[in-house]
Amino acid sequence: MLSAEDRVHPAFARLPPWVQEKLSPKAIDYIRRVHHWVETECVPAERVVKAQLAVNKWKTPPLIQELRVKAKKEGLFNLFLPKSFGDLSPGLTNLERTMNCHAPETGNIELLAKYCNEGQKQKWLLPLLNGETSSAYSMTEPDVASSDATNIACRITRDPKDPDTLVVNGRKLYGNVAWNEDLSVYILMACSDPENPDPWKRHTTIIVPKPTPGFRIVRNLTIMGYDCAPEGHGEYIYENARVPAANIILGEGRAFEIAQGRLGPGRIHHCMRLIGQTERAYELALIRATDPRKKPRGKLIGEFDSNIERIAAMRIQLDSMRLVVLNAAHTMDVHGNKSGRYAIAQSKIIVPEMAANIIDECMQMYGGQGLTQHTALPEMWMYARFVRIADGPDAAHRHQVGRDQLKTAAAIKGRHDGYAKRYEELCRTWGVEKEEFA
Amino acid sequence: MLSAEDRVHPAFARLPPWVQEKLSPKAIDYIRRVHHWVETECVPAERVVKAQLAVNKWKTPPLIQELRVKAKKEGLFNLFLPKSFGDLSPGLTNLERTMNCHAPETGNIELLAKYCNEGQKQKWLLPLLNGETSSAYSMTEPDVASSDATNIACRITRDPKDPDTLVVNGRKLYGNVAWNEDLSVYILMACSDPENPDPWKRHTTIIVPKPTPGFRIVRNLTIMGYDCAPEGHGEYIYENARVPAANIILGEGRAFEIAQGRLGPGRIHHCMRLIGQTERAYELALIRATDPRKKPRGKLIGEFDSNIERIAAMRIQLDSMRLVVLNAAHTMDVHGNKSGRYAIAQSKIIVPEMAANIIDECMQMYGGQGLTQHTALPEMWMYARFVRIADGPDAAHRHQVGRDQLKTAAAIKGRHDGYAKRYEELCRTWGVEKEEFA
Amino acid sequence: MLSAEDRVHPAFARLPPWVQEKLSPKAIDYIRRVHHWVETECVPAERVVKAQLAVNKWKTPPLIQELRVKAKKEGLFNLFLPKSFGDLSPGLTNLERTMNCHAPETGNIELLAKYCNEGQKQKWLLPLLNGETSSAYSMTEPDVASSDATNIACRITRDPKDPDTLVVNGRKLYGNVAWNEDLSVYILMACSDPENPDPWKRHTTIIVPKPTPGFRIVRNLTIMGYDCAPEGHGEYIYENARVPAANIILGEGRAFEIAQGRLGPGRIHHCMRLIGQTERAYELALIRATDPRKKPRGKLIGEFDSNIERIAAMRIQLDSMRLVVLNAAHTMDVHGNKSGRYAIAQSKIIVPEMAANIIDECMQMYGGQGLTQHTALPEMWMYARFVRIADGPDAAHRHQVGRDQLKTAAAIKGRHDGYAKRYEELCRTWGVEKEEFA
Amino acid sequence: MLSAEDRVHPAFARLPPWVQEKLSPKAIDYIRRVHHWVETECVPAERVVKAQLAVNKWKTPPLIQELRVKAKKEGLFNLFLPKSFGDLSPGLTNLERTMNCHAPETGNIELLAKYCNEGQKQKWLLPLLNGETSSAYSMTEPDVASSDATNIACRITRDPKDPDTLVVNGRKLYGNVAWNEDLSVYILMACSDPENPDPWKRHTTIIVPKPTPGFRIVRNLTIMGYDCAPEGHGEYIYENARVPAANIILGEGRAFEIAQGRLGPGRIHHCMRLIGQTERAYELALIRATDPRKKPRGKLIGEFDSNIERIAAMRIQLDSMRLVVLNAAHTMDVHGNKSGRYAIAQSKIIVPEMAANIIDECMQMYGGQGLTQHTALPEMWMYARFVRIADGPDAAHRHQVGRDQLKTAAAIKGRHDGYAKRYEELCRTWGVEKEEFA
Fold first, then answer.
1. Is B151–C295 a contact, with Cβ atoms under 8 angstroms apart?
2. Cys bridge to D224: A144, B133, C203, D382, which one at CB 3.0-4.6 A?
3. How do B155-159 and B162-173 pair as beta strands?
4. What's the DSSP call for residue D175?
5. Is-contact D238 D170, C-beta < 8 A?
6. Could you tell me if A139 and A125 lie in one domain?
7. Within a domain: residue B384?
């Protein structure tokens, strides 16, 4: 249990009581240390990292590399793997991990740990877990509507002369850019059996190492103008790219099985990061609102009651989206990723849009400076906007939820028919004429 | 713990896992029974009640009276009093009470139970607890901005010739209408000591029985056109109204102490009711969306993907506002009403507006019928709209939250100054030039 | 041209310059007189009319009857008929008629004037033009999705034994209530030829006089709780109702032709009324904001900068929706109702929703009183909400506009292909490598 | 007058009839030619310009330079100057100029043309009119709330030893970046007389040539990550910068006079550009919606009725904001910039926010590609977002409008008091009891 002192500590104060109650002593210790780590090692380092990137854009900056070494020493590396991963996991529940861990690494590591055979794990997973290399997830395509993943058209065939070799052809968007010197591997979802009558069994996931002959980068995709170096977002072509068949994960035709396992937690991780970022945007707004140098019409920005209301509205929305994400994490802990599907979708739909709106309001409070590099607000906004599309646009998730909900209509109709029957009884009992409505 | 079967029962299925876990066996039993009660005794009775009201508008309808008798027999009456009320309470936490209980009765009963002396309780509280009479809360005034309650101007003076008699003068809005035959009492907040230097000690709360000489009803206030009979919303005048001084609650000048205690839980009760109503509106929308008779352009309403998205959006918002209210209830259980102030305000700001919007969308799905008496939707909307103003408009609550938040800015600024200092260190360490931002 | 003095007169001041320029001397005179009429005869009479309705709900109140006589004497009756109606018209353009004229009378009169034969006009139109009787439009049905009017199922057949008599069977919603003593006639749209291969030729419009054997009222539909007496909104049944075949308007199977002609201007009239009502709501908000009795936290409501911003937002939205409606009226004047279809839909989609939101904000500024009969705000809101559904819900209109817009995509694509070709030329000219995007 | 053919030409088709009617033959000719120019010379050249900027970021790209020469030859250069500028003007009204002209050049040229003496015009204005140099406007400051321009603190003093020389000290944000080789001049607003009792007479506007000793650029401000080269947005310091006193514009203490003249039309120009950009974003959305390669769940994006509704909503909003801007332009033409103040503010508040929302929706329709450089959408969004802050944030404009509106309350109250008096008369006439409301 949290001590009274802990409860008002910034690392814990925003957590609702039901979550505070559930934290194990181990989690409390981790959160306290991670909070300190973020406050002293991460946030203050941001501009140094940017300066190092200005020198070498496509390389993990030295400060980050050193931080990784330090994090390992302090036991703060790879905290995200859930208990089911045994020794690889620090033993924290989804609910307990409130720190940041970056995409697509978490999702990819979880995928490899869950679905690879031992040889694959040794070769590809361990260097990722050690932070020595980084990985990309290769799914989106420019030529089809890949938000409906059954449309994915990038083709995997077997070389007829060398059946141990796969030949890949297609064009992909997203998945980090291979220019990053530390990138070692693309995890590719592509179509291997287009004629299979079951559309959910046509696709296969394989590991494409870097470099692979026939693979080339077209460009780095900017996101709202940001290059997102050193990871970037690649646009790239597989042109008779040759990959060993041993790099197939789980088995041919099993890509959807894998994708389901990957995307659920990944979506919640995005939402967790956004909550952290939005809290920081909110803190900047509070600082601006009380900046003694900024007095339009003679009052502090925070003395205008319109801004007082805006601050309250932001605070209240932020906390409501935190409740949604914490509930999704807990639902996954208790009932599993699959049963948590609805709660995950609820987070994915609500959080990125609300986060983007709150950060936008914070930028507006900063006036002319708000849109510039004077603060991290524009980059935070960009990330929130990105997540509204990453792993599927809002509309696709709403569509899925809505269709599931409509399946519940029949049972509800049954209950309402019960009301009607009982109403008739009551009319008779009380001598009241039954009203007919069309 | 809930059984697997219970977990999908409509009475429990919408509760998040962290709430399901916390339900005591007693609460599970109550919820199951109350759910059945509502499904079989309340919802189907609505139109019968309306028919009985058409015969006698200002009298609790016979069906309701009978239901009260039955509810008492089944132990489902007065479930809302929290554990701190001892024998009067069924022993349920705020979190566990997910059933409806009507305003202003709950708030008034809680007020009387908490602040009255024994004699007052015998005389006024017991008949209310028995459902034999009903009560009104008399606070709002037309002539001042009473959302800032220090402005309340209705005057209580002592009769100089008879100091045991209070003389009341003023005009009030809201508080039920005395035309209701069952109304027995107004709980009046008025100004007894306007010169007191402490504005929070100028007001006194007294019990005004019905009838009282000098008290008269001006009109019943309709809410968006609804008369809300038999309770109504009164507009009335105290003109030299004479009330025994023994009817002072808690003591002179202590009205704000009482008001604080009353309004917190009352706001959450309003929100709980709204969640129940909005669920019902949502169910009606699902039924409409699958009504085989309604096929614009040849498709069911629920086959249009725009409506599929709308249904998802409603579901997701509804569940997020439930999380907010459940968290507020739990926060009050764990930390008390006062510490729960923020969580209560969060509910009060989010829920009525969101509920009104969802119900409005449901009405729109019903087309021309949606605004008529064919469904309960318009009345449900009216109640949601009413709660956006009742117990203070949104803006007043946002103002309070915003001002509290701004008090946290200094500590946050301190942490951010820490970032700046650490950034300077890192610049030196890494040989990077420090950037200056205005 | 307007004089400088006229330009700041409340009757003209809100009109944009391009509209002020277009007003004929006749229109200027009419507007000035109608404005005076509304200010002195209509607005102040509202509560008197309500008092008279309380005495006899289903009868045009005596004050209104007297006003009609006076209006005729002053030449202010039936101002709405456009120039194309010859002597029946006062010769004003759509743009020039900025005064209120009530639905469904305007639409029905226009329909009868446009499509009836002389005998029908003598019998049914003249008493309406004289304001001696009133009329209803009977289209919506409870059993089908009648927003798609091809679904209308109410049946007209010929009596096989008496081919001069039509037999009608069906249930309708909306169309005023026959309880109104002054109602003389229903204009009914129903299905006469369900097997016709052209779905736009299956329906016929007929005049159903009151009383007609086989016609009966089920109930008055309340709109958000309001009974809208004395006109009301009826729910009624045609059960072997017998109507002379001479009452067919324009010809069998021509109902859609008639409906098109009726609904366009009717929608703009609704929007015009809403602008007038919203202006009035806005004026009430300004009065409240400067009411010296209302000082929450010691300041006038209009001294809070949050409210200053709200007032500005309302003003700006109100004027932008006026520009939309005036443009639609002018487009109809210049290019006809059919070419004005898009501009009409633009008004119908934007105005009711925006008006309802503005009025809602005004109610909120009034605090507890805002939802009651203390002002006309709740009724104005109800009318705005009603119009969001009347003559088709927003979504149906958006659907129509969206489909029309998608037809323009091919031409736009052609222009963009031109850009691509020209880009290639420029690449060659400037020696720049062409970028390929998927 | 437009021919029937012209009316459906893309250059004119979106103009409302009242604007089409007002176009002079000269304007029709200009618009037709400018439309062709934009379609063939500008839009297709965008990526070539980007490629040239990649080679030399801080220099007007050669293609642009050539376009300027061509534009001059075709008489399409400097079209924006209004008729009052005599020979400098092509004689078009605000209403007629629907083409793009870039900021801050238009505003600066207008300022110099209006307020400079002949010598200043020769030296600074002519090269700008010829497109040989470019200019910056230097107003915003990081250290004060400069949206309230009376706070501007950058100091101008006279050198006591050399009174013909001004000494400037201060830090500024915005105003293009001096790295642009073509930038010749900053138009600086600064404080020259801080003790003047009239706060509107404390500031002076001067021309600061480039280079000026004591002036230095700190950095280029990125806007949402974009560098906006070659113009950029500078952050820069005046540190004892020395400027000849002959560079004072209009006279000491007259900066506000100048600022007023500059900002009105500048705001409308921003809004005009945004409408053009949003139209283009909309066209891209239509093309995406009908792209045969994009078929999520087997249907074109434009076959989902949710997207059909989104397209309609975008179209309708776009056209409503065009009506607002055209009305503002016309109001300025007819009544002057000062009387047009409200209409300008209406545009400035409505257009940037609505444009950003529409472009955001278009990006979302593009899925993963929508946020990348595959289209111009992200840059267009960035410009719209920028304009929500440029020349003052929304809230500042709403504040100004709201305060002006509140001044009208007294007259409105007078009219409403008239209603009350007349109501009393009517009560007497009709024998109805007058209702009293608080």
1. yes
2. D382
3. antiparallel
4. S
5. yes
6. no
7. yes
Number of structural domains chain C divides into: 3
Do the beta carbons of residue A210 and residue A234 sit within 8 Å?
A: no
Interface of A with C in 152-191 (CB under 8 A): 171, 173
ipTM metric:
0.91
Looking at CA atoms only, how far is residue B300 from chain D in angstroms?
Answer: 13
Quick check: C369 and B173 CB within 8 A?
yes
Angle made by CA atoms D313, D315, D319, in degrees to the nearest 5: 120
Instruction: Please compute, for residue A304, the number of CA atoms within 13 A of its CA located in the half-sphere on the CB side.
Output: 24
Residues B62 and B180 in one domain: no
Contact C437 D374 (CB under 8 A): yes
Same domain, yes or no, for D272 and D364? Answer: yes
Neighbours of B (≥3 Cβ pairs closer than 8 A)? Answer: A, C, D
The residues in B 313-372 lying below 8 A from C, measured between CB atoms, are: 364, 367-372
D196 and D72 within one domain: no
Residue span of the structural domain in which C172 resides: 134-251
Contact predicate D172/D238, CB 8 Å: yes
CATH number, residue A385:
1.20.140.10
How far is D323 from chain C, CA to nearest CA, in Å?
A: 7
Q: In terms of Cα–Cα distance, which of D287, D270, D290 is closest to D355?
A: D270
User: Cβ–Cβ of A371/D386 closer than 8 Å?
Assistant: yes
Residues in D closer than 8 angstroms to C346, CB to CB, are: 316, 319-320
Residues B393, B395, B400: CA angle, nearest 5 degrees: 105
Domain CATH for A139: 2.40.110.10
Residue that is last in its domain, among B129, B155, B183: B129
The residues, ordered by sequence, that sit 6+ positions from B141 with a Cβ below 8 Å of its Cβ are B151, B152, B153, B154, B170, B171, B172, B173
Which of B47, B176, B371 to mutate to test binding with chain C, by most C CBs within 10 Å of its CB? B371
List the one residue out of D128, D146, D117, D108 whose CA is nearest residue D251. D117
Residue C425 resides in a domain: no
In a domain, B259, yes or no: no
How close, in Å, is residue D144 to chain B by CA atoms? 10
Q: What is the pLDDT along chain C (438 residues), one digit of tens a residue?
A: 788 888 889 889 999 999 999 999 999 999 999 999 989 999 999 999 999 999 998 998 999 999 989 988 998 887 777 677 777 777 777 776 554 467 788 889 889 989 999 999 999 999 998 888 999 999 999 989 988 899 999 999 999 999 999 999 999 999 999 999 999 999 999 999 999 999 999 999 999 999 999 999 999 999 998 999 999 999 999 999 999 999 999 999 999 999 877 777 888 889 999 999 999 999 999 999 999 999 998 999 999 999 999 999 999 999 999 999 999 999 998 888 888 999 999 999 999 999 999 999 999 999 989 999 999 999 999 999 999 999 889 999 999 999 999 999 999 999 999 999 999 999 999 999 999 886
Q: Which of D218, D235, D305 has its CB closest to that of B304? A: D305
B109 and B12 in one domain?
yes
**For residue A184, what are the CA distances in angstroms to A67, A126, A269, C309?**
20, 12, 23, 54
Using a CB–CB cutoff of 8 Å, tell me whether D143 touches chain B.
Answer: yes
Query: Are B323 and A327 a contacting pair at CB < 8 A?
Result: yes
Say what angle helices C305-339 and C255-289 make with each other, to 10 degrees: 160
Q: Give the Cα separation of C230 and D351 in Å (integer).
A: 43
Task: Tell me, yes or no, whether B221 and B197 share the same domain.
Answer: yes
Q: Are residues B298 and B365 in the same domain?
A: yes
**pLDDT per residue over D270-281, tens digit each?**
999 999 999 999
Residue C410 burial (CB count, 10 A)? 11
